[in-house]
């Protein structure tokens, strides 16, 4: 029975402990007192009957409420009663002299085995509760196993008492004259601590009385049973009196438990009566509602039919899409795919439903390496809540192991501002890739063929301007200088196109070697001295390197410097400032090129690394430029394991930051190196 939290219960535990202590002191004052065997028989018979009654009531409670605690308590006390009855029989006048053991041994060991059995079963009752709590799993102990074990122990003790000469149980020379009793004492103590920690004694009457019984049992075992020096001495009788007291406490707890059960049954009957009245009223209301429901069923059936038709239309529409489509929940688990998905990847709807999309679709780069989870479109869209479109060098792996290039768009699905999933649409771009490769190969071939005549034109114009073919007049010199300037621009464009084609075809080679990146920056900066002087630019260098030697490809590093410094110088007005900063730490080397130039319009910043893109504000101011420089820089860094990003404000300036691992660029085998030239 649950009552409110009773703050007086802890005091009752202290009171009974104090009373036991007083009783112990009284008993200790008469150590030589000895009682009569008849009084012992009365106490023993009383304990046996009380144990039997307690066990039977606990068993009845268990039959009504299957509970491991009640099962162990019932078998424990019934078993203890059986042990006590065996002891009574074996120590009676009829049995004495017919057994191999002396009566003193039978008395002592009968007590020990009885208390050991009941303490063990009570310990199991507490242990089973803690096991259920620890593993959060309700498990019913097998009744038959408990009964069989109890029967085996009872029969074993019967055989032991009847046919074996029991060993010595008293050791008067020791302070603890009956050391075997310590086992029961420890079990009672551990069980007491367990029930206290369980905490239900604050509300449950039954647990409260169990704790009172455990206090008495633990006290009697520790201070009485263990120090009894002789049969029928004062301590011996004190232990038996405490045993009977503990059984009365246990019986009280069980009777209160049964009483509370009857009380709850009676209360439930009253509630049921009230509920029956309410149900009658509900029945009338339901009959009225049923008439309304039947009228609405027809409308509902019509609506369902319409929805099913709409759903069929939607399904047919999705299946008619040529692109692959997959919808997932917010945990990336697949909820639907269309026929395009099945056709392109080779998986059926049944195979993939409920599976993480990242486990079904393997995404690889051009070299066959898996794309990391955090860089895949689907997780990014779910995490950011923004649409993600990609037409990168990514491939999807089919079920049969083959792969194909894809263009992907992932759109988050939102309901009331909360992302509930995402829809991914992907397309096989094998044909586009083949066309793009053919175009790249053509550009590469054309650019390579153009370099030879351009080199010849440059060589001959330099000879003419140098006077190798004779003196020329002023007008002719101006014409030849225009030719030289035009061929120089053409050479730069051809070099850039060649470099772009080598990136697109994947033939770029990266060959790192120890390079003084600080000296290389100064060397590239010197190439723009005339422009810097002409525009009166303030050049600031901030070099903070522990070691200027870094493993980079010097040719590629020069191209990165050339394009970033060229842009900073070119797009900064007169009297502006260009700052070049190179720093390192334990993990990375960082290059920062900032200027006070024109800046990049915010609406065009997302396209700044695209091929052939130039911002509107600089296109009008500077007609030179191919729009390939930043594309080349980002492509080189992507291949080499680096990264680039920027910050820019219109009419304030731009800052480009490049980061490389402190270990340097990643080596890459290829068939071509970059050709020099700014873009």
TrEMBL record:
Pfam families noted in UniProt: HATPase_c, HisKA, MASE3, PAS_9
Compartment(s): Membrane
Alphabetical UniProt keywords: ATP-binding, Kinase, Membrane, Nucleotide-binding, Phosphoprotein, Transferase, Transmembrane, Transmembrane helix, Two-component regulatory system
InterPro entries listed in its UniProt record: BphY/WalK/GraS-like, HATPase_C_sf, HATPase_dom, His_kinase_dom, HisK_dim/P_dom, HisK_dim/P_sf, MASE3, PAS
GO molecular function: ATP binding; phosphorelay response regulator activity; phosphorelay sensor kinase activity; protein kinase activator activity
Claim: Ribonucleoprotein is one of the keywords in the record: no
Catalytic activity: ATP + protein L-histidine = ADP + protein N-phospho-L-histidine
Membrane topology: Multi-pass membrane protein
Lineage top rank: taxon: Bacteria
Enzyme class: transferase
Residues in PAS domain copies: 310-365
One record GO biological process: osmosensory signaling via phosphorelay pathway
Domain named Histidine kinase: residues: 445-664
Main location: membrane
E.C. designation(s): 2.7.13.3
GO cellular component entries: membrane
Record-annotated membrane-spanning stretches: 12-30, 42-62, 69-90, 110-132, 144-166, 178-197, 209-227, 247-266
Protein name: histidine kinase
Species name: Candidatus Kerfeldbacteria bacterium CG15_BIG_FIL_POST_REV_8_21_14_020_45_12
Source lineage: Bacteria, Candidatus Kerfeldiibacteriota
